[in-house]
Amino acid sequence: MPSTYSGYETFIAELAPRLVQRGHEVTLYCRKSLFAERPAEFQGMKMVYLPSLEHKAFSTLSHSFLAVSHASFQKNDLVFVVNAANGMFGFIPRLVRKPCVLNVDGMEWLRPKWNKLAKWIFHTSAKLGTKFYHEIVTDADEMHRLYAKEFGIDSEYIAYGANIEDSTHPEVLKKYGLKPREYYLIASRLIPDNNADIIVEAFVKSGSKRILAIAGGADYKGNTIEKAFIDKLRELGGDKVKFLGHVNSTEHVKELHCNCYAYAHGHQFGGINPSLLKALGFGNAILALNTPFNAEVLADGKYGVLFEKNAEDLAKKIAELDRDEAKASAFRRSAPDRIRERFTWDQITDEYERLFQGLVDKKKR
Questions:
Q1: Is 170-342 a CATH 3.40.50.1360 domain?
Q2: Given Cys at both, which of 6, 74, 304, 332 links 298, Cβ 3.0 to 4.6 Å?
Q3: Which conformational region is residue 168 in: left (phi greater than 0), alpha (psi within -120 to 50 degrees), or beta?
Q4: pLDDT digit string (tens) for 128-164?
């Protein structure tokens, strides 16, 4: 905190302060190496900084082991853990009879970026998580169904949320060489399973006179796969794509969203993606890969355009939206309504608070 990179950080940045505002005491565990300054308190929350092995395969697991271990022996009522990879550590709070909840996010073992060993670890850890943790939280109807099929459990379905915001400083675009409504936007980590290559190829094929701006990069040093993927995107895009790099400022991210012509979302795995909800909250016209999770968020196309996983289909849909400015404007106007219907952070906090309180009350009985 404050959020710097992942969807989980965004999620906690919204949930944790709201729990504090409702009178709960909250302790957050942070990777020590990511913070030059380490305040003991932030927005009313106690901050604990623990080390980790900064490597793609071990950073999450090493830090999580230390964090779950530390949290399990503190005077708190409950331990909340995110990421199915941390399912294996649920035995620690269980040993000391501490109520514990795991938000699993998605089916990490299906992501193509992982080798066979990593996929086996993720699947095994997720399975162990369903045994160790008192409650498993899934963030989509489809993910709830998949966990029931794969592991035979009835998980708790609680979605992510988003805020509704408008542009307040459009002049920020000049910093990136962009003009309002003259660009499409991708805002994500540039990894293969987010399908930015399909989006770039489709955008070039669409013949749009606008440009495609990409805010994002690879976050792990020395990751040759992600570097090669970015090189591929540069080759595919040519002068039709502008690479903005990782954008640290949340204000700048907001302005990039609020002023784009449309937002392109290629995320394939995981559950309901925070980036897609954020795009709705910012009032984007959206083109999203047709997955059960993205279809759930966009109400099967009511709040955006769903495309199939091939450049030809997306190119056709980009061209159609590019010509139909009235349709794009209609999507922008209606997008925040979807957040109000189902995905406000206050609604999500209500659901987590009920879940947490129920577990604590059950232990006391």
A1: no
A2: 304
A3: alpha
A4: 999 999 999 998 888 999 999 999 999 999 999 999 9
